[in-house]
Amino acid sequence: MKQAIKRIWKVLAVAGTVMALLQSVAFVMFMYEEAVQTGGFGFMVASQAKDYQAICEMHQAQDRLIREASTFTDSWGRLAFWTYPAYHSFFEASNRTNTAYLKMAETKIRETLAKNATQAANITQVKPPEVYIPQKGDILVKAWIMDKEYPSIVQRLKLEKMPLLDGPYYRLTGHVEVRGESKSGASWKLRFPALGVELYLSKGFMVIAA
């Protein structure tokens, strides 16, 4: 009888340990869900303020967070099978919302540029400024970053400045090699063969057209 009771307690102990591990997985998914939801609140504030540039910048951070959350959920979330479908669906819906906000912001920026250009043309009869659309293989960095942090590279390579929707960028295509992501995943490692220079640039300030 005592042996049977001991076996039962051992089984219960093992079951408790397993459930604790599964609950840990569910808790991590819950924290990701809270982070994604909190990040999403910023879109509403920026939309009300009509700060469409801020929406474009927030989209990049939110996109990284959602991809990280989805990767964890799809890799480990099935262990917490009773919560996996709900979290999986939540992160998919968050990704669609994130994309929708970006498209809305880009549309509003285009409309504003077109409106400003039309008004300028009506007053001065000058040609409306064109917006550069990144081509496949393009590598571009926000101009103010290069001018502030790496002016010597701009001058030595005579980089070309291109007008994008969210401001001017320098076109590094042909001058730089992308060596991959940093360990944190927040920046790209770039190498300038002609200069023998390597540096890291934040992904939030770059456009790499696939």
Description:
By secondary structure, the protein is of the alpha+beta class. It folds into two domains: about 1-125; about 140-210, no CATH class. Helix content is about 60%, strand content about 15%. The protein contains five helices and seven strands. A four-stranded antiparallel sheet has the order 2-3-1-7. Helix 1 runs parallel beside helix 3 (about 85-125) and helix 4 (about 145-150) crosses helix 5 (about 150-155). The longest helix has about 45 residues, at about 1-50. It is flat and about 95 Å long. The relative contact order is 0.10.
Descriptive terms for the model:
210 residues; 2 domains; 4-stranded antiparallel β-sheet; 3-stranded antiparallel β-sheet; 5 helices; 16% strand
Summed up:
This protein has 5 helices and 7 strands, in the order αααβααββββββ.
* Radius of gyration over C-alpha positions, nearest whole angstrom: 25 Å
Largest beta-sheet characterization: 4 strands, antiparallel
Strand content: 15-25%
Can you give the mean pLDDT?
82
Number of structurally distinct domains: 2
Alpha-beta content class:
alpha+beta
- Total DSSP E strands: 7
**Order of helices and strands, N to C?**
HHHEHHEEEEEE
